[in-house]
Amino acid sequence: MPGENLSRDEARERAALLSVDGYDVSLDLRSAVGEGGGEPRTFRSVTTIRFRCNEPGASTFADLIAPSVTAVSLNGRDLDPGEVFDGARIALEDLAAENELVVDAQCAYSRTGEGLHRFVDPEDGEVYLYTQYEPADARRVFANFEQPDLKAPYRFEVRAPEGWTVWSNGAGEPADGVWRFAETKPISTYITCVVAGPYHYVTDSYTRTFEDGTKLEIPLGAMCRKGLAPHFDAEDVFLVTKQGLDFFHEHFDHPYPFGKYDQAFVPEYNLGAMENPGLVTFREEYIFRGKVTQASYEARANVILHEMAHMWFGDLVTMEWWDDLWLKESFADFMGTFANVGATRFKDAWITFANRRKAWAYRADQLPSTHPVTADIRDLEDAKLNFDGITYAKGASVLKQLVAYVGQDAFLEGARRYFKRHAYGNTRLGDLLSVLGETSGRDMSAWARSWLQTAGVNSLTPQVLLDAGGRVAELAVVQEAPQAHPELRPHRIAVGLYRRTPEGALERYARVETDVHEPRTVVADLAGAEAPDLVLVNDDDLTYCKTRFDDTSLATLKEHLGALTDPLARALCWSALWNMTRDALLPARDFIGLVLRFAGRESDIGVLQMLHAWANSALVHYAAPEWRAAGGDLLAEGALRELRAAAPGGEQQLAWARFYATVASAEPDLKLLKDLLDGTMQIEGLQVDQELRWAFLEPLAAHGAADESALAAELARDDTASGKRHQVRCLAARPSAAVKAQAWAQVVESDTLSNALVEATIAGFGQPSQRELTAPYAPLYFAAIERVWRERSIQIGMDVVRGLFPALQDRAETLQATDAWLREHADAAPALRRLVLEARDDLARALRAQACDASAAGHRPLA
Q1: CB 178 within 8 A of CB 159
Q2: What is the pLDDT of the chain when averaged over all its residues?
Q3: In the prediction, which pLDDT does 546 show?
Q4: Mean pLDDT, to the nearest integer, of 257-278?
Q5: Residue 481 neighbours by CB distance under 10 Å
Q6: How far apart are CA 726 and CA 661, in angstroms?
Q7: Across the strands, what pairs with 263?
Q8: What pLDDT is stored for residue 38 in this prediction?
Q9: How far apart are CA 689 and CA 723, in angstroms?
Q10: Contact of 50 with 97, CB cutoff 8 Å
Q11: What pLDDT, on a 0 to 100 scale, did the predictor assign at position 692?
Q12: Radius of gyration for the alpha carbons in the chain, expressed in angstroms and rounded
């Protein structure tokens, strides 16, 4: 990665110097089919950039990462590529007022999901290409000025192998073997896109007539690999797409500005999706090969709507630099759920947001690398790491709080003015605050300072005093902040009082909205209320905070959590209890006990699946080591009990079956999984489809009950790209020193695996039941990561540094080794140090939680 970085200061200097009028990009991708039996390395890329310079005679540079450059000309003057190109930049000197740069280069196909990714489908040998650029990988495909504020229109033309179809941001048609695409609106480099190959393609259309009588027609398309076509439910993708377009047109008052709307589901994708205007790309795992729960369909709809929101927040109006990444990602994350609830069948999406997205934010906001929503992004490596829980989920939570603070109408009117005022331009924080100030009549500066320009998460705890008659004499909310980030914020909250009914339900009987901004705020409107069994201080999830409980409320939840009738309130309580477990305030065994006691009564399937993930994490990371075996037995026993009790064929049954596979370790449990695979045992209604077969095979492989031949036989049964990823993960999961050595070498010492297979190998390598087997790799990790970071792409570097950190070696010695590396590598790349610091913090948190759980050994678990 040396030489590939770009600093904020450099970008600002170049933006002050240049204005870009347009790009013509010509790509020759005929080499992608690998003629002659060898795997192709490069393709030809010819770029013409027309740009102006407001200081004639000045110097600057263009960006390009390529194995070689054939020719460079500036204003008709040929430049020596060997002199002006250093592998990442093209030096440009003595600029004129108006300039034309032409670069003819050999660019590299990618195997890491960065740039132009090339994938060969093992099922049929077909080759598929797609691009992925954010934040700065367009320069791997064509020469450019790689920063978001140098927007320009683009014209692409692509030569492709015979029989292929090619797509780009604009509409295109082939002529004489060349695909030529309509010129785009002015957009940033990182949201240009090309997809090419023998994709299965389905079409539809969207029409809308506006109040003034004008009619908008948008051609719709959706595509995937041919091997996934039998599973592709394009009609549901189009349904959500049309619902989203209706919703955003109604609320944004700005017609979709980018012509067509294609959506490509592509293989080996590093992200969930990417908002390229006119050609959105998604990971193909959103095409479901087997039975999944409604939570998976809801998640896909949320992503579709998230990316669609970007057409306005991010594509039409773009942040000036990555400091204000939140201006697109926080808004899209909020709008994805807002539209899901407002436009689709997923009316409970705010429950998923409260339970899943905010859990991501809470974790990120307690790491040493936490940062304000508006971050300090010094360079591109910083930018890459800031696609995190702060920028997405905390930012979205803050916007949800903002809607409660200024009102939904003022918020949406502010958005409408923002689009009209800054269409096709670039903005900073102040540009958005100014329109929100106009529409709400509020001074937004204090709110922004507290919520956008400070880091950390507050905790809100109720204090309840009863009078002699058993009624509420005083109810107060105590706000606390961590020592490292002491900001107390203005919270608009709802406080809910709950009590048990004669029928045994736990229901709300009083609710008050109030503003909390002091260390202690009295909620006067609740004085005189009947004594509550439970106080929920962030009822309806209006603010972003960690919710705590008074003693009475916690005791009520321990006995009656399953009796809470409101699903959102229940999800908020589960989230609060999980935060308490992570903060070493609730023993892990108690949280596991609550899951085993009450999760079977959970009606929201997304919450149930989140509880499964949390319970497994509590066992693996937060339970005292001496209790893990007993806790695992309890989880497996409870999961099997709920699996057998679940309604046959229902999604709860499927969720419990998958969870059972993750916690199965004892011989009877492994035997049952084998019998379910063989068909010698059946559970009524449970369809063991191909995806569930792989889910059952991984624990069998990890515990030595499925060998290489069994996994090869399964791959023969599922000889697809998806099957190959599953097999690679299962192979790396086997309990053998030789297996671990091979997996380590394939990931750390070699770059032959694609990004998807690197991910699968890492996932299989670290098995909780194999702590002793992977212990020797802890010192090897610290010896290797700086070299890996230096030699590999940033995406693979992130995967290795995060995925192979010895978190399962959860001992003080590992913490000391981490500290020693940090101390001895103070001059390592800041982004690398950040990743190690985050992993260190997770490990320290786990050790604290284990100590808390060990102190609970004297009392019986709740299960």
Answers
A1: yes
A2: 96
A3: 97
A4: 97
A5: 16
A6: 15
A7: 222, 280
A8: 62
A9: 13
A10: no
A11: 98
A12: 28
**pLDDT of 435-475, one tens digit each?**
999 999 988 998 999 999 999 999 999 999 999 999 999 99
The full DSSP string for 191-224 is G--EEEES-EEEEEEEEEE-TTS-EEEEEEEEEE
Render 612-628 in DSSP notation, one character per residue. HHHHHHIIIIIS-GGGH
State both tokens at 402. Answer: 């903002």
The pTM is what?
0.96
Q: Among all residues, which ones are annotated catalytic?
A: 307
Enumerate the H helices of 679-811 as residue ranges. 690-702, 708-717, 721-733, 737-744, 755-765, 771-774, 777-791, 794-803
**DSSP-assigned letter for residue 296:** H
Check pLDDT > 90 for residue 808. Answer: yes
Give residue 858's pLDDT band: very low, low, confident or very high (50, 70, 90).
low
671 φ, ψ to 5°? -65, -40
Beta strands across the sheet bearing 261-266: 200-209, 215-224, 261-266, 279-283, 273-274
Q: Which residues contact 46 (CB under 8 A, 6 or more apart)?
A: 25, 26, 27, 102, 103, 104, 105
Tokens of 235: 């009609």
**What letter would DSSP give residue 670?**
H
For residue 513, give both structure tokens. Answer: 């909205």
CB-CB contact of 144 with 60 (8 Å): no
| Of the candidates 112, 104, 31, 36, the residue with the CA atom closest to the CA atom of residue 69 | 104
Do you know the residue count of the chain?
863
Adjacent-strand bridge partners of 45: 27, 105
Contacts of 673 (CB under 8 A, 6+ apart): 661, 664, 696, 699, 700
Half-sphere exposure of residue 615, counting CA atoms within 13 Å on the CB side?
A: 30
Q: How confident is the model at residue 859, as a pLDDT?
A: 55
Position 443 scores a pLDDT of: 87
pLDDT given for residue 334 in this prediction:
96
- Is the pLDDT score of 632 beyond 50? yes
Task: Give pLDDT, residue 40.
Answer: 77
138 in the Ramachandran plot: left (φ > 0), alpha (ψ -120 to 50) or beta?
Answer: alpha
In this prediction, residue 35 carries a pLDDT of 56
* pLDDT tens sequence across 576-591: 999 999 999 999 999 9
Local structure of 715: helix, strand or coil: helix
Which amino acid belongs to residue 616? N
Residue range 319-365, pLDDT digits in tens: 999 999 999 999 999 999 999 999 999 999 999 999 999 999 999 99
Closest C-alpha to 695, from 646, 649, 656: 656
Q: Which helix (H) or strand (E) covers residue 440, if one does?
A: helix 429-440
Cross-strand pairs, 157 = 26, 180
Roughly what angle, to the nearest 10 degrees, separates helices 605-617 and 651-663? 10
Buried b / exposed e over 717-753, threshold 16 CB at 10 Å, is ebebbbbbbbbbbbbbbbbeeebbebbbebbbeebeb
Q: Check residue 1 and give its pLDDT.
A: 36
Cβ neighbours of 513 (radius 10 Å): 14
Is a pLDDT exceeding 60 seen at residue 430?
Answer: yes
Burial 828-841 (b: 16+ CB within 10 A, else e): bbebbbbbbebbbb
Contact 512, 526 (CB under 8 A): yes
Mind giving me the DSSP string for 111-157?
SSSSEEEEEE-TTT--EEEEEE-TTT-GGGTS-B--STTS-B-EEEE
- The angle at the Cα of 599, spanning 543 to 858, to the nearest 5 degrees, equals 95
Q: What is the pLDDT of residue 863?
A: 41
Render pLDDT for 722-763 as a digit per residue (tens, 0 to 9): 999 999 999 999 999 999 999 999 999 999 999 999 999 999
- What are residue 462's DSSP bridge partners? 477
Asked whether the beta carbons of 361 and 544 are under 8 A apart, the reply is yes
